[in-house]
Write a structure and sequence with these properties.
Helix content of chain A: 25-40%
Number of helices of chain B: 13
Number of strands of chain B: 3
Distance between the termini of chain A: 127 Å
Radius of gyration of chain B: 21 Å
Structural class of chain A: alpha+beta
Oligomer: heterodimer
Largest sheet of chain B: 3 strands, antiparallel
Shape of chain B: globular
Strand order of the largest sheet of chain B: 1-2-3
Helix content of chain B: 55-70%
Largest sheet of chain A: 5 strands, mixed
CATH topology of the largest domain in chain A: Beta-lactamase
């Protein structure tokens, strides 16, 4: 009996304990259910996405980049075939070892540290471009092919620039900055600014893969789409001709602009470079180029800023006319200098021009006339009108390092130099020296604005872009007076560029304005003096030679702005070049 | 030795059918794991099942008295089997877990679980006269389970070893040890666990570290857990549907037919299917447990409760492992994982459970 009691007690303990275990089991089941709920219901989309990624491997195929043409559909940047060593990470875990092996076997001179960093984050199924493969390297590789599971030789495209005279506008390609972009991108000038337009859409090959990354079957293919072709306003022949007439030993630039629609017909800068060396990875040439003191990468047509010199004078004249400070009959006696306060301001012609009216002042480029005018001028009027006529600003034409230049104002001087404006500075500004900074492209635009009576087309390079007209209309009388004077510069005796008419009578008749851009101020009295050319002046202190002209003078179609650094006076160097290029453009009906 | 053939009428047919249902789910699952093919797993597993069925019915018809008397012999046979495994065993995947008997690769450790429960059931049955069982009295069974734990752990098969030890502790707890001892045991384990860590093989340490942070090695050891979670998670509420599991059919999941078979199931049948499966296993656990409340014999109670618990416990451990709440220790999903030893051992357990559920305790069976 007693024994039974104890036995029954212990049975009760067993039953109690089984409840505890049952409860623990239930709790455990509940926790598992919660976890399943979290995985399958709450985080379902996350895991679903992962499972799709697991299943489908997307291999990207690079698109063909759009071609670039001149205005007559002449190819100036295209694509050509080449072979590359491509690494596919999914084909072997030891891809990094194989890259090292390849590097020692074929002497590719790879930067292994950089590559290992970049390849780490790279898409597993899209090929990583290791290096170009030459024929010799391909043969060597084929012999040892069995050593490399992850590396393949694949045909690919590279950029092809057949003509080096376009490099300073088209720019060049470089390595992608984002590790997941697997093809080169434009890094300079049009290649850079038109990157999205030119690059195209990569193709996608959807593969079903197993857990080892082995492709089981191809699901579908999205073909790559070639980028858009870019048509430029440039004229192939004109561009090449312009380069050929730039003095090879001088730095300089020529811009030819259409008066009608603002098309940039040619835009050259010397020295220049060949963009193809970047595509061909000619590292020694690239290094030489980057270290060249004459800066061939620098396109002086739109990145080079110089004081415009006398080609700026029409603006001062316009302000005088607009403010009724002068009329065409107003006369000034030029004795070779003008004084303001205790300072003398010299004309380039020491003997003086004698009696000078507006037409003569422009035709013979009399400085004293403009000094006298400047004494009455508010510099802000000059600055505002300049802005209206295309200076003081950049144009959105897709070029790198396109600066704005400067035509000074009181406000500008206060803000940047923290000084107030002196009247003497207005005198210097009115003849285009001093703080004034303009590029050849801006000068061409300025003359386009004058010829178009103030409402002018903004310069453009993309032929398909619409023509945008900007600016305020000028008084037609004022414009006529100015154009008449500018024509006289070349067409009438005593004009600073009359020489052109005499030496090349068969050329198209042009109008224009000479200028001399001062490098150092000391020679203020010596500008455009014939004696000046004979003087032995150290090359780098010589003035820049400037000329802006248009042709034909009675019905202008083309504008050429020429600057030759350290070339001396505008009439001697820049003007003949401008005449040649305008004649070429006119005769070939560019 | 055998019961009267008429006792077949007393069989708990519900339980029997649940076994068949779960095995059938397992078969379907192995079929889909092979990408919609009976070959190789589903067909093999079915053949094994059919081969084992006679043994199942044989054990089902054994006299409980015979089983009671056979316990020690069984334990000694298992002990010898484990020693043979260690010396002559067949090595696979860095562990020596199998011995070849009559063309089968037998994993003795699976049967150790049954032997240890039977042995302890008998031990505590004999102690039942005592009012409460003190610490000393529980030292012997603890000692025995530790010996078997070590024999299996050095194979090395940590998963099975831990289950063996856990079952030993569950029997001791169930048999009525003072509630303080289990706490002491847990405390002791916590204290010696840093020591135990040094005894673990590097790959076992690795597994535990990776369990704590699978992203340590997403393509290596952590790969299992990550891929398994992706498969389960992508199943969603309703599942992708039968044979529609992309992760499983594309071989993203290694060992999907064995330890990670639940992921295959859950990917196809989703949260709904998973909860139903948990319920099914819970009912399967509960049926023998309900019977224990009607029984007074300690041997019967322990066998019914702990062996039924064993199946449910392994089920919970296995799932926890696949959903990343326990480290991957290599515990099979009962009746669903591909593997002969696990199937045979669970069939023997179910035969024992069915056998003991039909016991009529009115006559005193054991002395």
């Amino acid at each position: 009996m007693e024994k039974n009691n104890t036995s029954e007690d212990s049975i009760k303990i067993l039953n109690r304990r089984s409840f505890i275990i049952l409860i623990l089991g239930s709790i455990m089941s509940f926790i598992i259910s919660l976890r399943l709920f979290s995985l399958q219901v709450i985080n379902f989309s996350f895991y679903k996405k992962k499972s799709v990624e697991n299943k489908v491997a997307i291999k990207l195929t690079p698109p063909i980049r759009g071609d670039i043409y001149d205005s007559n559909k002449k190819l100036i940047a295209g694509s050509s075939s080449l072979y590359e060593f491509i690494v596919y990470k999914n084909l072997s875990k030891d891809y990094m070892k194989e890259i090292k092996k390849l590097n020692t076997l074929i002497k590719l001179r790879l930067n292994l540290d950089k590559i290992s960093k970049r390849i780490k984050n790279f898409n597993e199924y899209s090929g990583f471009i290791l290096s170009r493969a030459s024929w010799k390297q391909i043969v060597e590789f084929e012999k040892n092919k069995f050593l490399f599971n992850s590396i393949k030789i694949v045909e690919s495209k590279k950029r092809f620039y057949p003509y080096k005279n376009f490099s300073q506008i088209i720019g060049y390609m470089g390595e992608p900055s984002n590790p997941n972009e697997f093809y080169p991108k434009g890094v300079f000038h049009l290649e850079k600014s038109y990157e999205k337009y030119l690059k195209g859409t990569p193709g996608k090959i959807f593969n079903e893969v197993n857990s080892r990354g082995k492709i089981i079957r191809e699901i579908s293919i999205e073909k790559s789409i070639k980028g858009n072709d870019l048509d430029l306003t440039l004229d192939f022949e004109l561009q090449n001709y312009a380069q050929s007439i730039l003095p090879p030993d001088k730095k300089g630039s020529i811009v030819v602009l259409s008066v009608i629609d603002g098309s940039i017909l040619s835009m050259n800068s010397n020295p220049t470079f060949n963009a193809q060396i970047f595509e061909d990875r000619e590292n020694s040439k690239i290094n030489n180029l980057l270290n060249d003191n004459s800066k061939p990468l620098f396109n002086r047509a739109f990145s080079g800023f110089y004081p415009p010199g006398s080609v700026f004078k029409p603006i001062s004249a316009l302000v005088g006319l607009q403010r009724n400070l002068i009329d065409p009959q107003t006369e000034v006696i030029c004795k070779g200098h003008s004084s303001l306060g205790d300072r003398n301001y010299y004309c380039w012609k020491k003997k003086g021009h004698g009696k000078v009216n507006l037409k003569k002042a422009i035709k013979e480029s009399c400085d004293v006339y403009f000094y006298e005018l400047a004494k009455k001028i508010n510099i802000d009027d000059i600055s505002n009108l300049s802005t209206n006529l295309g200076l003081n600003q950049g144009y959105d034409i897709g070029l790198s390092n396109l600066g704005k230049g400067l035509v000074p104002s009181k406000k500008w001087k206060k803000a940047f130099l923290e000084q107030s404006w002196y009247q003497g500075e207005t005198l210097i500004a009115c003849i285009g020296q001093g703080y004034n900074q303009t590029s050849p492209l801006q000068l061409a635009t300025l003359y386009s604005a004058l010829l178009n009576r103030g409402k002018y087309p903004i310069p453009r390079l993309d032929k398909k872009s619409s023509i945008k007209i900007t600016g305020k209309l000028l008084n037609s009388e004022h414009q006529k007076i100015l154009i008449n004077a500018l024509n006289a510069v070349v067409q009438e005796p005593n004009g600073t560029a009359y020489k052109l008419t005499i030496s090349n009578p068969e050329f198209v008749k042009i109008g224009g304005k000479t200028g001399t851009s001062q490098v150092i101020r000391i020679k203020e009295s010596e500008r455009e003096d014939d004696q000046y050319k004979l003087k032995e002046i150290e090359e780098k202190f010589k003035d820049h030679s400037v000329f802006v002209g248009y042709a034909p003078y009675d019905k202008p179609k083309y504008i050429a702005a020429v600057i030759i650094e350290n070339g001396g006076s505008g009439s001697a160097v820049a003007a003949p070049i401008a005449h040649k290029i305008l004649d070429f453009a006119y005769k070939n009906n560019v | 030795m055998f019961k009267d053939l008429k006792s077949i009428y007393d069989l708990n047919w519900i339980y029997f059918f649940i076994i068949l249902i779960i095995f059938w789910i397992g078969e379907i699952n192995l079929y889909s794991a092979a990408g919609g093919s009976f070959d190789p797993w589903a067909s093999n597993q079915l053949i094994r099942f059919l081969i084992f069925l006679p043994l199942f019915f044989l054990i089902l018809m054994l006299e409980p008295k015979f089983i009671f008397n056979f316990v020690e012999i069984f334990l000694i046979l298992i002990f010898i089997g484990l020693i043979i495994t260690l010396i002559f065993g067949y090595t696979g995947m860095g562990a020596t877990r199998w011995i070849r008997i009559a063309g089968f690769n037998l994993q003795v450790s699976e049967f150790t679980k049954i032997a240890i429960v039977l042995f302890m059931a008998k031990y505590f049955h004999k102690l039942n006269a005592e009012k409460t069982i003190g610490l000393l009295k529980s030292v012997l069974p603890l000692f025995v389970s530790l010996i078997f734990f070590i024999l299996v752990a050095i194979q090395p098969d940590l998963g099975t070893a831990v289950i063996i030890l856990a079952l030993g502790l569950v029997v001791i707890f169930y048999a009525g040890i003072k509630i303080i001892y289990p706490f002491l045991a847990i405390l002791a384990i916590l204290i010696i666990s840093p020591l135990l860590w040094t005894f673990l093989k590097p790959y076992q340490q690795n597994r535990i570290q990776i369990f704590l942070n699978p992203d340590l090695d997403p393509l290596g050891k952590g790969y299992h857990i990550i891929q398994s979670k992706i498969a389960i998670g992508s199943g969603g509420l309703k599942g992708n549907g039968f044979l529609e599991g992309s992760q499983s059919s594309l071989n993203f999941l290694p060992e999907k037919q064995t330890d990670f078979v639940f992921a295959i199931f859950s990917e196809q049948f989703g949260f709904t299917g998973s909860i139903l499966l948990i319920l099914l296993f819970f009912i399967m656990f509960l049926i023998p447990v309900l019977k224990t409340f009607k029984l007074t014999q300690v041997f019967n109670k322990i066998i019914l409760f702990v062996l039924s618990f064993k199946i449910f416990f392994e089920f919970l451990i296995n799932i926890s492992m696949t959903i990343g709440i326990l480290p991957v220790v290599g515990v099979a999903l009962p009746f669903m994982s591909y593997g002969g030893s696990s199937l045979l051992s669970n069939l023997i357990i179910c035969a024992l459970l069915l056998n003991f559920m039909s016991i009529n305790e009115r006559k005193r069976m054991f002395s």
